[in-house]
Amino acid sequence: MAKVTKALENSRNIMEMSLGWGLFFAPGPAWAEPEASDLRIVRILILILLAVLLLPYVVTPFYRTGHPVSMLMAWRWLKGAPVTRQWIDFNAMSPYLPRSVVGSEDAKFCSHRGVDWGALQDAIDDAEDGEPARGGSTITQQVAKNLFLWPGRSVVRKALELPLAMWIDLVLPKQRILEIYLNIAELGPSGQFGVEAGSMYAFGRSAATLSAREAALLAAILPNPVRRSARNPGPGVRRLAGTYMARANAVALQRCWSENRGF
């Protein structure tokens, strides 16, 4: 009898232990499952966002060669809108073109490291004072925007653009940055991108053969090539072209070209 009693006690102990382990390993309550699923989704979304943000930094060093396209060009292709772009190497361009564009868009291109903080502060001050907005973006910032971001004014886009511009300036030579810009900038009213397509549309010949005046006219339409025309320039465009011709010959820009920042 004692043996039977002890066997029953042992069986009861084993059942209690099994029940305890079962409770330990049992799945959580049903209400906890949706929360775990939501957390997984949030983690996946965060990883995707980080990958998208880091992708330009990974891709940029590979742009030391090749013929990159802009986001606007890609968007127009997706919509079925016309896109015309013929790549032209920097050394094949008319020498007046890069000088006119730097003189018009970014006078400190040779000396800054991707961002002209003084020009940016001036643009912020003008906006705060209610004055007409003027561009504070460098050529390098415009390359960052055109290659990886979206057009239009946005605090978020600007926050992404600034560190990306500094990274581009760090990993690409100045000449290559300018070469990319001159081949992806919009320079015509119907999908002309780059100085070669812009030159063919406006003057009927290659960007390799442009005069100082024609190069300055192309530079003058850069902010808005849809409303401004180098093909039929109005008084404002002609006046700007004269200004940019003078800037291209300024002493500071001549020094910029003679120094060792890639030219």
What tags apply to this protein structure?
263 residues, mainly alpha, single chain, 0% strand
What do these coordinates show?
The chain is mainly alpha-helical and 263 residues long. Helices cover 62% and strands 0% of the residues. The protein has twelve helices and no strands. Helix 10 packs across helix 11. The protein is globular.
SSE blueprint and pairings:
Blueprint: H1 2-25, H2 32-59, H3 71-79, H4 96-105, H5 117-128, H6 139-148, H7 155-171, H8 174-184, H9 194-203, H10 212-220, H11 235-248, H12 251-258
Query: Number of helical segments?
Result: 12
Q: How does the major sheet shape up?
A: none
Q: Overall mean pLDDT score?
A: 84
Number of strands: 0
Structural class by secondary-structure content: mainly alpha
Termini gap: 104 Å
Show unreliable segments: none
* Share in β-strands: under 5%
User: What's the order of the H and E elements?
Assistant: HHHHHHHHHHHH
Shape: globular
Radius of gyration: 30 Å
Provide the helix percentage. Answer: 55-70%
Quick structural gist:
The protein is mainly α and 263 residues long. Helix content is 62%, strand content 0%.
